[in-house]
Amino acid sequence: MSLAVKKKERSGVINPIFTCQPAGAEYASIGVKDCIPLVHGGQGCSMFVRLIFAQHLKENFDIASSSLHEASAVFGGMPRIEEGVKTLVQRYPDLRIIPIITTCSTETIGDDIEGTITKVNKYLKKEYPDREVLLIPVHTPSYRGSQVTGYDVGVQALVTSLAKKGEPNGKLNIITGWVNPGDVTEIKHILQEMEVEGNILFDTETFNSATMPDKSSFTYGNTTIEEIADSANAIGTIALCKYEGGNAANFLEREFGVPAVVGPTPIGLKNTDAWLQNIQKLTGKPIPESLVVERGKAIDSLADLAHMYFANKRVAIYGDPDLVIGLAEFCLEVELEPVLLLLGDDNKAPSKDPRLAELEKRANHAEYDIDVIWNADLWELESRVKEKGDIDLILGHSKGRYIAIDNKIPMVRVGFPTFDRSGLWKNPVIGYRGAEWLGDAIANAMFVDMEYKLDREWILNVW
User: Fold this and answer.
1) Helix (H) or strand (E) holding 6
2) How many CB atoms lie within 10 A of CB 366?
3) Rg of the chain over CA atoms, in angstroms?
4) Which residues are bridge partners to 97 per DSSP?
5) Tens digits of per-residue pLDDT, 421-439?
């Protein structure tokens, strides 16, 4: 059958899949140690992003705002940057880096971010001669793109500003993309098993924070400025997500000769196999028996589910392009049918992704079509459910939960944000263990649905 790629026909947006570019740059920034991003815009551009991060991760993060008001639209907002930087440096003695993230309002009025940084740097050098605080411009106008492009822009801004050629370090850069702390833990596990020293950009494992006996709690990014700078001296770079870090990987190859491999996102067996093989090619390290055993366990677990419960179940998937395509590839591995893929911003590049052609090729023997809609919103999902009634399972973040509830469709929460289920960010989606978790999560959602609807639930007694 066929795979059709099309743009959403409506010009308006109803129930958006993503939030705006600055949110992505903010997420990249909080993955850096001793870093507080300064969002140059209205108070809400910081406050509401902090809220959604807290909803997802159940932790608080320091994100500052220049807090523009009406006067700045007329006279410019540069003084607010100056005041914001001065306040942060005075208040946080350990602060070492401040990404200055623009928004729709400050991009529209044309504030000179780079010029303001030059001016503020003179002040910092004079008032704090023994202290270096780096100011990084990050341009993320909210009227185009989304959190996905904003994350990519944020990563690229940090890497291009800080990467510095030095002595070879023997490390392998891993640009994670917008993944969960559980995925970062899985990345580290894979590298440890292969005895590869990784340089994780950006290490958010510590977002799974601890409350200590002294009642203190701490949540912080774990990638240092020095590690970002040292990315120019690695033996190679693997960007796990093409649209969330791929440009930074290509920059390191172009500017410093660091070999880059962009994708595929290691969701499912085939993509994880490719990831391990890419690590092997770049480092020369063999794939150990322990990971072969993990792969075998995932195969065994998925084989118990695929033909009996997953076959011919039609799936709608929405979210980040790399996540959506990776989940669609996983679906084909376990006999699920990914009939609707929703990509939620105005970036046309994912609609031409070669992985979609591969999806079509792999699905050609099946009797169903795949619809890929870019610049989509969740109204596209709801319309499909109501018009055709052919969706058996939904994969996506919590913003689509009411569509699943209203139409009594089982749903597995995956992506960002997931705030209506506990602890999902602790579980990996990538790797062999991620594939096993995905299979179990999908099966359990289907089992609950069977019980509520009294739909062949007796099978579970003899399974």
Assistant:
1) strand 3-7
2) 14
3) 23
4) 35, 134
5) 999 999 999 999 999 999 9
Q: Which residues lie below 8 Å from residue 83, measured CB to CB, with a gap of 6+?
A: 66
Between helix 181-193 and helix 269-283 the angle, nearest 10°, is 50
> What does the alpha-carbon distance between residue 139 and residue 78 come to, in Å, rounded to a whole number?
14
Residue 265 main-chain phi, psi, to 5 deg: -60, 125
C-alpha atoms less than 13 angstroms from C-alpha of 313 in its C-beta half-sphere: 26
Alpha-carbon gap, residue 283 to 193, rounded angstroms = 13
**Integer Cα distance of 236 and 283 in angstroms:** 8
CA atoms 446, 447, 451, 457: torsion sign: positive
Report d(CA 284, CA 401) in Å as an integer: 45
35 DSSP β-pair partners:
97
| Alpha carbon distance 426, 317 (integer Å) | 21
Give the integer Cα–Cα distance in Å for 424 and 443: 16
Q: Are strands 210-211 and 217-218 parallel, antiparallel or unpaired?
A: antiparallel
With a cut of 50, list the residues of the chain below it in pLDDT: none
Integer CA distances (angstroms), 100 to 87, 97, 358, in order: 14, 10, 39
Nearest C-alpha neighbor of 140 from the set 39, 251, 13: 39
Quick check: 266 and 432 in contact, CB under 8 A?
no
Instruction: Using DSSP bridges, classify how beta strands 97-102 and 64-65 pair: parallel, antiparallel or unpaired.
Output: unpaired
The per-residue pLDDT for range 272-283, each reduced to its tens digit, is 999 999 999 999
The one-letter amino acid code at 58 reads K
* Cα of 27 vs its chain's centroid, Å: 9
Q: Are strands 3-7 and 370-374 parallel, antiparallel or unpaired?
A: parallel
Residue type at 334 in one-letter notation: V
Distance of alpha carbon 318 from alpha carbon 414, whole angstroms = 9
Phi, psi of 141 (to 5 degrees): -65, 130
Instruction: State both tokens at 136.
Output: 């990084």
For residue 186, give the H/E element and its range: helix 181-193
Chain centre to alpha carbon of residue 206:
16
DSSP letter string, 250-299 = HHHHHHH---EEE-----SHHHHHHHHHHHHHHH-PPPPHHHHHHHHHHH
Contacts of 93 (CB under 8 A, 6+ apart): none
Which whole-number Å values give the CA distances from 273 to 76, 266, 323, in the listed order? Answer: 52, 8, 17
Residues counted in the chain: 463
Predicted TM-score (pTM) of this structure:
0.95
The strand pairing partners of 3, in sequence order, are: 370
Report how far residue 433's alpha carbon sits from residue 105's, in angstroms, rounded to the nearest whole number: 43
Looking at residue 360, its pLDDT comes to 85
Question: According to the model, what pLDDT value does residue 64 have?
Answer: 96
